[in-house]
Amino acid sequence: MKYKCTILLLVISFTTFAQERIRLNTVLFETDNISIYVKDIRDERKEKSLGNVDNSSGKQSTVILNPNASKAIQEFMDVSFPFSKEATPIYIKIKALEIQQSQSAINTVTTRAYAHLIFFEKKENSLKEIFNINHYEDQIFDISNTSGIFESHEKNIRATLEYCMQLFVKNYKENKTSEKDTLEFRASKEPISLATVPKLGKWFDILTYKQLFSKNREGYNISYIGFSDSEDRFILPFVLSYSTYKIKPESLRNKGYKSVDYFALGAGFDGYFKMFPGVYVGLGIGVPIGVEVTRNTENRKRTNFLIGINAKQGIKLIPFKDFGIVIGANIFQQVQTSKVYKTDFGFELELGVNF
Amino acid sequence: MEYKIKMAFALIGIGLIFFINTINAQKIDKTNLFEIWHLNSYKIKSKEYSPSKKEKNDYIHFKEDGTFVSKSENTIETGTWILNNNGGYILMIDDNNETIKAYIVSLSFENLILRFDVAEIKEVEVVYNSHL
Known about the structure:
Protein name (chain B): Lipocalin-like domain-containing protein
Keywords (chain A): Signal
Shape of chain B: globular
Strand order of the largest sheet of chain B: 1-3-4-5-6-7-8-9
Low-confidence stretches of chain B: 12-25
Strand content of chain A: over 45%
Low-confidence stretches of chain A: 180-195
Order of helices and strands of chain B: HEEEEEEEEE
Number of domains of chain A: 2
InterPro entries (chain B): Lipocalin-like
CATH class of chain B: Mainly Beta
Oligomer: heterodimer
CATH architecture of the largest domain in chain A: 3-Layer(aba) Sandwich
Number of strands of chain B: 9
Helix content of chain A: 10-25%
CATH topology of the largest domain in chain A: Rossmann fold
Distance between the termini of chain B: 61 Å
Organism (chain B): Aquimarina algiphila
Helix content of chain B: 10-25%
CATH class of the largest domain in chain A: Alpha Beta
Number of domains of chain B: 1
Strand content of chain B: 35-45%
Number of strands of chain A: 17
């Protein structure tokens, strides 16, 4: 029994994230001399943590505001909008407050804080909604800057809260001067709901094997593809590839060669158009650089520098799972500095894994 | 006894200075922005470039009433601006409700260096002077 409990505790400790508490710094911001103070902040989020991100040591952690979101934001607001008897009390409901981070390029990480706040004023003993805003702030960091990445979450939250408050103040002043009874403002044109929390794109690391079929060549290609599946329709992945091909024996007849082999490295960017989640149409231009090894009928071996340019059009299917299979097919056209065949076209079948 | 009182006052003083510094550590003085900022140069990875002929008279005027006027390649734009101290940026909202963020790289009485949150020019620091 004792052993079972120990094992259970070990399993729980491995599967749950460590917890990090962050304290909001108090940085004053401009208030345009508006006479308001924040009377009460109610946290209406179901999930009270800010989210799961890497801490300064690079370990996944659940982050919460210290001591809790309502109190931390109250203290943050009180510095810029101190209480006074003459000031109008404002009430805030926190509908969403979260942080995210995701690899956004081969060497960068994007961090984000997102808030959805609703502002109220007391009229005839009941709270009346006067302002509704959602906003996010992003920062981009070098992937190796783990402490900077973690520290940025706190700054992103402050910047997001200040943005919401500044726009509230601007709107409040404008509406008060035009003597309107109520004010309504939405920073987002989209209807606000928790379902529309803008998520950072997921980073995909993909290893693929491509089998090449063409009139004159046969061979394969191994590629690493890295890309962030952002909300953008057009995605530019980072690609590193190694290819090895040889000319088919039947294509060498009457050419004076016994064998011709290619070894090429490629690096650069293809472009993907996201048709549906997990379905991408690829368009790419590559510059393969390598060597061409020829052996003539007298068995004399020669090595030539090879550079080319190719264009590809294809489709790639990537399941939206952390680990999954990638399937693709491309047609390609290539021009190269070969001694044997300077042009080629054909198709490739692709199989890979994302991890 | 007198020594203890002096020590107590000294500690309170140090504490107050620390507290004030914590609050104002990152505060940007908004009044320093109330100027006509003339475009002086562009900086990319600490290398400086002069503006083109068309941009020679470009400027941004951040007014005290929260409005701005800017001139970019002979095009005048107007709107409102907000300083986000915690984010370290100026948010400009033009008359068509289009917004642009400009991160403050540095600010002094005579110089303002901005980095605009526009994908194509994110690496470019735009240097402005308060005098021509």
